[in-house]
User: Fold this.
Amino acid sequence: MKDYKDSLAVFIEEIKKSSVYTDYIVQRDNLRKYPELKKQVDEYRQKNYELQNNTWPDQLFDEMDRFQKEYESFRENPVVHDFLAAELALCRMMQMINYEIVKAVSNDFE
Assistant:
């Protein structure tokens, strides 16, 4: 078990050294300089999450279109845009890592 935990610790450190992760940290820290803007971003993220998870599939496209139009000018703010882009890149990296791990071991489950 120690080998597994040691390897995991090394892998986590490699993730933290990645440009995707370091860019996210820079953008997160930049957003934190503007508490009111951070609050608005958090509200935007919460509404986006709720919309994606509480909307009927046949209504999702129209609702997402409406949501994007509603927040279009908000997302044009460079601090908001850069943070959301960095967050999305980090989420996609984490999804890819999870996908690759599951793919590598799922064939062994019976």
In short: Residues 78-106 form the longest helix (29 residues). The radius of gyration is 18 Å. The chain has a mean pLDDT of 95.
